[in-house]
Amino acid sequence: FDLYNNKVQEFVAHSTEVNCLTIGSKSCQVLATGGEDAKVNIWKIGDSSNIWTLSSNKSPIQSLCFDCDEQCVVSGAMNGSIKVFDLNEGRLVRNLNGHQVNVTCLQYHAFGEFIVSGSLDCSMKVWDIRSKTCLQTYTGHEKEITCARFSPDGRWVASSSKDGSLNIWDLVAGKILQSFRISPSYITSFEFNPNEFMLASITSSRTVKLWDLETMKAISYIPPDSSIVKAISFPSQESSMCVATKDSLKLWNWEPTIKLTNSLDIAWEGLCDMKVTPDNKLIAGSFISNFVSIWSIDLNNLPVPQAKAPVINSSENSSKQGSNKIP
């Protein structure tokens, strides 16, 4: 697989290190990057010049998310501040105050003006953007929140933590539905399957687990990878999951049992953060420095690796006429 020829774009995104990035889910053509320089830069994929530089923060940006219509972007900073920017006018429109330290993750609700945030302060909060109020604070984790996401139907919200727990909450009732625990590692990130009632989690021990959300039990397990797992996506193929690590892309099928169906060796040298577009056709990555790269890789139709032709030892073959031995 030729990674170089599949590169759409590479550019310097900030004057300092890029801490996070996100891609708009509607067009899959708008990108936001957050930097150690406390700025949020907005880019149109394929254009080398940024659309906006949003710089009302005084603290490094740690997390980002777009709304579903790509009309605004939300940033979370190391000092705990959450800011909402209007992308039509390139200006700050909301300040959401509540976390006191690093906002580690953000996500916009699919059907309303709400966001979920997770923090180093061990809490998860759900916010009403219009009223600028915190609707609910979820506690129970003993260490920092690593990931927080709404379920695809918008009825649940889930959070994972460095304490090894993954909690699922009912948004309306405000009560916990299930708490999964793993040990001695912890869940670094997770994704809801948009088409099936299940969830996939990435662990700090480089494994991936699949959870059935009807039975609330683990149903499959991908053994430890040789490299850190950075992202999970669910391509259009039924019962398939794509796992991106620091040196590969792997396609797994979980029915009837977990099975590796495709694997591409890809060296993402110095990779820090990675995001996959919802249509599974673009991958964006930030690296140890201040640049971002974007690749066109259709995860719905990964190329099949070509097997190398065996090399025949001609001298040995001639001494043993008729032999088909391959060294």
UniProtKB/TrEMBL annotation:
The UniProt entry annotates WD repeats at 11-53, 54-95, 96-137, 138-179, 180-221
Quote the SMART domains the UniProt record gives. WD40
Which Pfam families does the record associate with it? WD40
- GO terms for biological process? microtubule depolymerization
Keywords in alphabetical order? Repeat, WD repeat
The family database entries (PROSITE patterns) matched by this protein are listed as: WD_REPEATS_1, WD_REPEATS_2, WD_REPEATS_REGION
The keyword Repeat belongs to this UniProt entry's keyword annotation: yes
The name this protein carries in UniProt is Anaphase-promoting complex subunit 4 WD40 domain-containing protein
Species source reads: Chromulina nebulosa
